[in-house]
Amino acid sequence: MPWWAWIVLGIGLLAVELFFVDAQFYLVFIGLSAAAVGLLGLAGVHLPEWSQWLAFAVLALVFAGFIYPLASHWVFGGGWLTGALEGALLALYLWLALKSAQEHPL
Question: How far apart (Å, rounded) are the C-alpha atoms in residues 7 and 100?
């Protein structure tokens, strides 16, 4: 498949997961795998058709089978990243407020 078809497939899988189906974020990681294969083609790595599908399958298995359970346990299962998202958002809000105050003083 051409690189753009992989990226369209990845975006389509992401959209299906986010708007239509609740597959517990597995489609997100499969969509990211498709987009990663498309980005390889966009970067100039020309792979034969069979190796594109092999790369997609391996990435999807690694993302959905290893990275997703590990990361979800760290974030949602009471692991060490449980409060990290809130802390990161708070830091982002504070940085934006300071940046805005510097650009537009009273």
Answer: 36
pLDDT averaged over every residue in the chain: 82
**Alpha carbons 43 and 60: distance in angstroms, whole number:** 20
Q: Which tokens go with 66?
A: 């290893």
User: What is the mean pLDDT of the segment spanning 32-49?
Assistant: 91
CA atoms of 45 and 56, how far apart (whole Å): 14
- Enter the DSSP assignment of 22: -
State the total domains in the chain.
1
Q: Which amino acid is residue 66, in one-letter code?
A: F
- By residue range, what is the domain housing residue 30? 3-81
Average pLDDT over residues 66-75: 76
